Structures are given as C-alpha cells and as structure tokens.
Amino acid sequence: MSNMRIPKFAWALALTAAACHLNEPAAPVVELSAAPRALFIAPNALELTGFMPSEIVSARMSTGVGPSVTWTSDDTTIVALASVDERSVKLTGRRTGQTTIRATAPDGSRAAATVLVTMTPPARFPIPPRAVATAGLMVEASTRADSTSGDPLDGPKGAVRYTTTATIRNIDSRERTIALDACPIWITVHGGGGWELQDVHYLLWDEMRTNSGCAEEPKRVTLAPGSRYTLSASVFAHELLAAGLASNYRYFFHAHVRFDTTQAVVTADSAVISYPTNVIATAANVSLGSRDTAAILNGAMTIANNGELKSHLEFGGCALRLLAFASSDRSGAPKWNSDARRPWEGSFGYACASILYTRDLDPGGSISFNFQSPLIEMMGDSLPDGRYYFSADLRFSNRPNLTVPAGSLDLALPRPPLPAERTADLMVYHASGVTVDGSSVLHAHATATLGYANSALVGFSNDCPIVIYAYRDRARRDSAPRSGVADWVQRTSCGTQETSVGMGRGETRSLDTSVPVRDILGASLPSGTYYFAIAIRAQTNRVFLSAGEAVLVR
User: Fold this and answer.
1) 350 to 318, 377, 397, 496: CA distances (angstroms)
2) Are 219 and 30 in contact (CB under 8 A)?
C-alpha cells in the first residue's frame, strides 16, 4: 500500500445542499491557451503521518510522458525524497510541519505540491462523495462500460472499455471562467472494504502513473449560470487486469478533476472488471451411440473466442443442456429438457455439483462441452417414436446463454409394456388391479412405500394423488401415456399444491380413488372390456402404472 496517495481535499471539501432553479444553460465558451506543454503533480496536496509515513507522487507532462524531472523539497527535515522512476518520487515524513515539493522538467516547466506532516492519522482511503461543490461549481462523475468493434483506432475487437465522464456545472448566479490544464481529468480504480470500522476504497490503479499522454491542451472555459462542461477519460479492462487487478471482482472508479487551483475527487460508479466474453458457438450436434445394450444420446457444443483478447468464462457443473422439439422451427415448449431427466430405473435422480468453473480462453482458442444420457431417459414412457429437432443451450454465470440448433434425429426405441410397479425418487409405487363392486362403482388402489431412505418427507398431490385412465385397447394402455389421449380420464386438472408426509423406511401409504361406471361410459362409450392405468402424483412426479382391466356395463 506504499503507493497510496490521498488528496487532503478528498475529505476536506463539503457537499452543498443548496438547490436553485436555473434557466436553460448557455453553451460554454472555450479559450485555448498558447502554452503547448504543462507539467503538474498529482496529488497537489497530501498529508503524511507517523502511521503511514511514506507516499509516492508522480509528475506528468501534458503532451506525453516527457523526459525525467528533477525533484526538490523546500525543507528536507520535514519531507525527504527518494526517486522511484523518472517521473515519480517517494516522500517520507521526518517531523511534523508543512513544506512544498517541486518538480522541474528540462524545458523549465515546473509544478509544486503542498505536503503536511502530522502525527494524527487521517481517514485512510476515504470514499469520495458523489458530488463536490466548491467556489460556485458542482463536480459530478459517472462511468459506463462498452465494447469496441475492432476498429484499430477504437481498441482491440471485443475489448471492454470503461469511460468516466465528469461534469463541471456552474451553480452560481454569475458567469464563471475556469482554467483547465492539459490533463484536467484522470481516473483511479479502487477496491472496496473496511478499515478501522469504516468503509474504504483502497487504491489499486492510478492513471497518473501510466505512460499515457494527455489528450487536451490547456484552455479557459466560460460557464454561464446553470451551464456545464464535461471531461472524460477511459481505460480498457484488459489494461487494468494486466496491471494486476484480479478478474471478475467489483472495483470503484474515482474521477480526479483539476481546474484553476482546485483538484476535486468524486466517486464515479463501480463495475465488475473481467476479460471480455466475446465467444461464438462454432458447432453443436447430437448423435446416437450405444453402451452395452443401451442406446445412448450424445450431445456436444464447441465455442471459440473470435476476439483479439482473452475471454473470461464462468459456468457450472451442468453448463450444457439439450432441448428436443417436435418441429424443425423449434417453436413452442420443448418436448424434452435434459435438465428434467430422471433415471429410468432406480431410486435417485440426477444433480449438478454446486461448483463454479472459470476459464480464460485465448484469442482463437476453443472449448467443447458434452452431454450423454441413455435414450430411454429421454423417451421414457411419454415420447412417441419419431423425428426430434434439438437445440444445445450453453449456460454461463457471467454472460448470456448461447443457444443454437444441434441437428435432428429419428428416434425409435422398443419399450416394455407399462408396468404395475415402479421405483422413483426413494419410493416404490405399486398399483393393484381395478375392481367393480355390486353398485357399479370402479375402485382403484395403489401403494407408495419408502424403500430407499431411513426417513423422508414425501409430498403427495392435494387435489388428485391418484388419477384413473381408461382405454378400450390393451396395446394403447400398455404404451401409455405416449399412445395419446385416453378414452376417458378421471380428472384433467390438478393443482400443484402438495402435502408433505413424514415416512420411515418400509412405511406404506395407501392411495385410493373411486368413480361410478356410468361416469366412465357417459353418453358415448359402449359397454365392454376396458384397460386401466393410473397416474400417481407425488414428489412433483407423475408416475404411470398399469392397473388391470374390467368389464363395464351400462
């Protein structure tokens, strides 16, 4: 932290609470100075203490870095000087008091700064106000981020540029003329944190210590009451990262504005700074493979960095998902979402590791993501054989998703008849065959047994934990629900609310429902043999089971 520099005025200037109604601002009048060069020191006032005894200050030429400068201290018993580089010097306070340090360039340009040495530590790394009012002028600043297009004059393709704009506004009732030197604004970038029970912004990067010149010449600006003048400075994200800032953290911009003999420092917003995320999807596809005797669905997506800078990517453990659609335009809701897949057999589902991966992709570099699943976990007992059109969706934590077409597949999968018993999410579900009693009421019965945990809270649907489906054809029942709409359904609308029930290992919950035969046959279905299935709604699942057959008579 030895290179921290704190302008004394940063905590000495007070905000004004005065507000006034002004007429439409007049355009400022700019008067150019004849002086082609200027030398100045930043900061031009600072305070040293025994607590933090040394600081580094820099001198800067208006037309560029310029030659080395000569440093002197009016009283070396108060402030001693030690050269750091051709433009910077380290100050060390030797005793309390006030003196002036001076920088002189070979062409005779000179600049000075006042240094106060005290034994009372000032507020370290103070947070400047959003606005500073001084001498009838209000200074404010903001920072915006934008991406460059690749124009050689605009910066590398894909680069992220942060532009800080400061506004000097005349809040006085009189016209004001101010003098601006060749470097009227520069940026510092700070981290956030706490120190001595107060929030602070500690210095991490100072534009004053870079090798950039100043874009403007010294000038005088006349401001009518209410009018304003804007100044701006910018820095690229990759320049800050190259200077040692850590990627993907939030940093705070401060704008330093100089006019007349005043230097004002204001907070100018914050931003998360990282390498650009200028990547494109170069290829995505799906294919069928096999493992042992099982058909396997494979998905892959490759992305590449087509920018001129590194690209910083952040993604989770299940970054790539596949979506399957019934139409080539991939419109409407997908028929299948790989995030929702469940094991076809077994007691547990899938989960993504709660982990964040990071990758800095070099220009021209690429990275591939892959997905694999047994085809039965896509088709299950719900999707019919046919052609499906896939999209690959790659999710990031620090940039928008990339979603691209991934081809199509003709899928056909032999599947066993609908079973009467199935395991899903710790539970074993079993359906008994339906029965019809003497009063012509059809009864369906099922059980739900906790088989794969010592105890669990199991949610069952409030409105319809069990629903009956009737088919006139055995084959349609055996291929339900992919065989289409049943000839009769007990209920077609069930709410999403569930009641959680505590269950122990081996404990069984009975699920029953009944319906009069006349309600099933209604006015259109004939008497005859019907084949039944039930759907149990539990744990947000819909588990289909075969439920036998029965003869129904009007």
Assistant:
1) 11, 11, 21, 22
2) yes
147-156: list long-range contacts, CB under 8 Å, 24+ apart: 147/276, 147/278, 150/308, 155/236, 156/236, 156/238, 156/307, 156/308, 156/309
Phi, then psi, of 520 in degrees rounded to 5: -75, -50
**27 secondary structure, DSSP code:** P
Which residues fall within 8 angstroms of residue 393, CB to CB, at 6 or more apart?
Answer: 320, 321, 322, 323, 401, 402, 403
CB 88 within 8 A of CB 82: no
List, in order, residues 6 or more apart from 8 with CB less than 8 Å away: 43, 45, 46, 47, 116, 122
Burial class from Cβ neighbours inside 10 Å (0-12, 13-18, 19+) for residue 98 reads: middle
DSSP letters, 124-148, are: SS----SEEEETTEEEEEEEEEEE-
Tokens representing 3 are: 């290179």
Dump pLDDT digits (tens) for 49-102.
554 556 677 776 655 545 678 888 998 888 888 888 777 888 887 777 788 888
Residue linked to tokens 């620090």: 398
Chain segment 425-462, per-residue pLDDT in tens:
889 999 999 999 988 999 999 999 999 889 999 999 88
> Residue 415 class from Cβ within 10 Å (0-12 exposed, 13-18 middle, 19+ buried)?
middle
